[in-house]
Amino acid sequence: MKHDSHGVNLFEISKKYGFKEEEIVDFSSNINPFGMPKSAKDEVIRRIDDLSTYPDPEYRSLKASIAKYTGACEEDILIGSGTSEIIANYIRYANPKRAILLSPCYSEYENELRKIGSEIFYYDLEEENNFEIKIESLIDKINKNDVELFIFANPNNPTGTILTVAEVEEILKQTKCKVFVDETYVEFADKKVYSQIELTKKYDKVIVARSTSKFFASPGIRLGYATTSDEKCKEYFFKDSLIWGVNIVATIAGEKMFSDNKYQDEVYKFVEEEREYALKFLKGLEGLKVYKSKGNFIMCKLLGGKTAAELYDYLIPQKQVVRNLASFKNLGEEYFRFCILGREDNRKLLLNIEKFLKEQ
Question: For residue 302, what are the domain limits?
Answer without folding.
Answer: 10-30+262-358
